[in-house]
Amino acid sequence: MVELNIVNLLMVLAAAWLGGILAKRMGFPAILGELLIGIILGPALLAVLETSTDLDILAEVGILFLMAYIGMEINFKDLGKASWAGLLAAIGGFVVPFGLGYYTILHFGGTHIAGLFVGIAVGVTSLATKSRILVDLKLLDTRIAYVLMAGALISDTLALIIFAGIIGYVEAGSIDTAGLALVAGKAILFFCIAMLIGIYLFPLLGKLLTKAKLTSRTVLVTILIIMVLGFSELAELAGLHGILGSFMAGLFIRDSVFSRQILKDVSAVFHDISIGFLAPIFFVTAGFHVTLDVFQTDLALLICVIVGAVVGKILGTTLFYLPSGYGWREGFTIGTGMNGRGAVEIIIAGIGLQMNIISQEIFSILVFMAISTTLTVPVFLTWTTNWLKKLGELVKQDARNGYLILGANPLGLYIAKQLAEQNEVILIDYNKDLVNEAKAQGLKAIYGNGLREDAFEEANALNKNTFIALTGNSEINLLSAQLAYNSFYIPNRIVLVSPVENGVGLNLLEHMDASSLFANKTDMVPWSYKITTNNFEQRTEKIEKEISTRNWFKNNAKNKDILPILILDENGQKRPFHYKDIIKSKESVVYLQ
């Protein structure tokens, strides 16, 4: 009987929390800190912590839940945003480092199976941290952002498929034709059964739960856990590893079982269970298996694997990206962004160690490779994107376009109608009458709460380029802009700030990298009334000399009651008038007076 050592578990969790916090404060993913703290406090250095059977069991459950959560976070529709370019980057960024890793192990006397495992590990690209880095570097509206995300998704999925084949081969323990055919047949049968369950049974289960009113968070999380463990066992029965089953379960759960809001609530709980509790145990205990002896006994192999991983990922991405027609410099930049490894790589390496496919030395090398390559991503990507900017080659991506406006009041409707002449505009409002009025005027409008993610999802916020918060409450405007920034990565956020709320100032807007609508604090109510009663004139002023929006407003609003709403460029394209903009020569300002 396995007894739980509560003190040891408590110390591991405390160490994971400390390592994760320190890593995130330095701008790196939490798993990096969890691995390092495991190395420092584990047998490799201080020997304060040690692994045990109970921790191993919790860690194994942790990686199953983590892979399910990764699957739940993946949206295959995102692949269409990068299309051909993303596929090229993924193939080049996987195949070349895979080959280098495989032949490096063979050159140093390793087995073919060990070489394949190392090849998969160096070919993987970390998916989990890309969005945060892209947000921090303000790259989400660029082409390289979509290529990076698609490339990471494709390479991780490709790695798991190859991993499944290797595991099946190892479990079979045979190299004859009949044995390989059996392995392949069981793997194909698993994928077929998994797809049938995911496509047909999961949606039916979702409907039955709703009909039976079994929709409490506790019940749904329990059912989700049963699904994940059931798929994991199905994969094990097929001779594959459970992580492939849990990953597949996560993919199907995302799109077929729960409604958007329920999925968000349930996945948040699952996030806390996996990433907040169980997965950190795996990453800290993975650090326990690292040996520092490799710096003395296998230093040449360590250097070759790390150099091969970095050079292979960047060079492979650059070369394979050339047929896209976007240039080698953009390919090189994407390669630096894809260079980081993460959870999937460590999980695959850990399974290889557990199955005695790779040695403790090779496992240690793969951990140090993951740490060193992950550390390079923010530095390399910052340098290469600045390089592209200087050359004028940082291309904006058209995949995000259109406006999402919170507030279907008369002022919001007036601006929306102007912008809707050239762009897709969707309004969100919690007042049904205002929503109906917007629809009556031919605009797209959604009834929903601007502080809830389900309203943003219904408005297809992930594809919108600009968010405008235009309610009379500055606090709601700021909070909704923060939601647009954190959850949907909308690149441009413009907020109406009311003059009566002194606590809401430009410093808060700067903090979230947002801009103030109309380049000034504005009371919405009087202007809404003037629009409703048609007590205004719309005028246009052509600009002869370049000027900031703020200075234009100061120069023109001294003795006149005006509201600048739009800027027209030389081609007649419209954009909102806001604080963080420059009006160029020959552009025009549209204002109400």
Automatic annotation (TrEMBL):
What is its membrane topology? Answer: Multi-pass membrane protein
Gene3D superfamilies documented for this protein: 1.20.1530.20, NAD(P)-binding Rossmann-like Domain
Task: Report domain RCK N-terminal positions.
Answer: 400-516
Location in or out of the cell: Membrane
Q: Name one GO biological process term.
A: potassium ion transport
Q: So where does this one cross the membrane?
A: 6-23, 30-49, 55-72, 84-105, 111-133, 145-167, 179-202, 214-232, 269-288, 300-322, 342-359, 365-388
Q: What are the recorded GO MF terms, alphabetically?
A: antiporter activity
Q: Which SUPFAM superfamilies match?
A: NAD(P)-binding Rossmann-fold domains
Task: Tell me the Pfam families matching this sequence.
Answer: Na_H_Exchanger (PF00999), TrkA_N (PF02254)
Query: Which named protein is this?
Result: Kef-type K+ transport system, membrane component KefB
Origin organism lineage: Bacteria, Pseudomonadati, Bacteroidota, Flavobacteriia, Flavobacteriales
